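Hi support team,

I'm opening this ticket because the web form for multi-chain structure prediction keeps timing out on my end. I have pasted the exact lines I submitted so you can reproduce it. The total is 384 residues across two entries, so I didn't expect it to be a heavy job. Is there a limit I'm missing, or should I split the entries? Thanks in advance, R.K.
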Amino acid sequence: MSQYENNYYQNGGAGGGGFLTGGSPGSANGSPGGMGRKNEAQHSLRPVTVGQLRKATQAHTDAEWMIENDEIGQVTVVAQVMSIQVQTTNTVYWLDDGSGRIEARHWMDSSNPEDVEKWGGIVENTYVRVTGNLKTFGNKRYINAQHIRPSTNPHELYFHLGEAMVTNLMIERGMPPGPGQTAQQNGVVASGSGASAYTTQSRAQTSQFAGLPPLQRSIMEFLHSQPPNDEGVHVGAIARSVQGGDAAQISSALDALMDDGHVYTTLDDSHFQIST
Amino acid sequence: MTEHISTRVNSHRLAAYIGRTVRLVGKTLKIQGDTAIVEASDGGQVEIRLPKDPPLTGTYNEIIGNVIDGSTVKMLMCIDLGSDLDMKLVDDMVELTHDPKFHEKMFT
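Hello R.K., no limit was hit. The queue was backed up. Here is the completed structure from your submission:
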């Protein structure tokens, strides 16, 4: 029982800490200054469709919005303006991008002529690009717009659709392979698991240590291929495995690698470990 | 909310959307009275039943309307897309929005 109380106390303490870092409630209402937020997603800008925003979910009213399982920060859409309602403090734009409709609200400072000018160029029945955060008011979802501008080039819409699709695929499947490493990880590896896995690995290392002289490079590749071990690798084992170098050359190569910080000595001066 | 979805289509996808609202990009070929003939992004010709207002103004327009049959759309509104539009890009994007990888998640 006393143990239980002890745990309870600790949890209570942790909960207090969580309250401090968990973001001030005010930040959820749109005020700036959620200083405690470390979330990178909050500072990201993702191209989306209105359909994705309508399907976005939120665990509770102060939680971050998620599209599928991915947190979103700012979003940008390109959509048709169906209607504009100018109100005293804000303007409501009804947006339709073909995948659904959503409101965008812009809170206006009408005393500032620059603001009026900047936001004045939007007309109904044209395409606009809107950037902002997803919010709710009552049961209604809207985009709290930081920025709206007319999309004067019709190709922007099709670019946006493509960009939103690519972004979605990258989040789902990771970055596509770069040029020169096409499909290496994805398809071919399935045949002969051990051998081919080894080949890809050594190829990756070749590129990783490509900047080093040949002897240093083969030492690094050998060290890298060894199972992880706190004691490091004895210089004799290195000398046996590395081709084309006498003891003095290997020793100076190891010195150079140490000077550059690629390896360090462990138990004594003849055991080496790779720096990670 | 489904009533607000207007799927992007080309001429050969019209038949799958009879009775529904779509967005069709068309190059105006001719206007005769209250019908217009436009060329869709996949090159097929589509008859557009025009309302009194608004008129089809651009060379290229995005026509939002109800599909009557596989080659006829009753226009509700339109957006002028100007006189310079890459119809190959439009058609590629139309086809991609119907790709099962994206359609359900992003365009419904």
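A quick check on our side: The domain at 2-100 of chain B is CATH 2.40.50.140 (OB fold (Dihydrolipoamide Acetyltransferase, E2P)). Let us know if the file doesn't open in your viewer.
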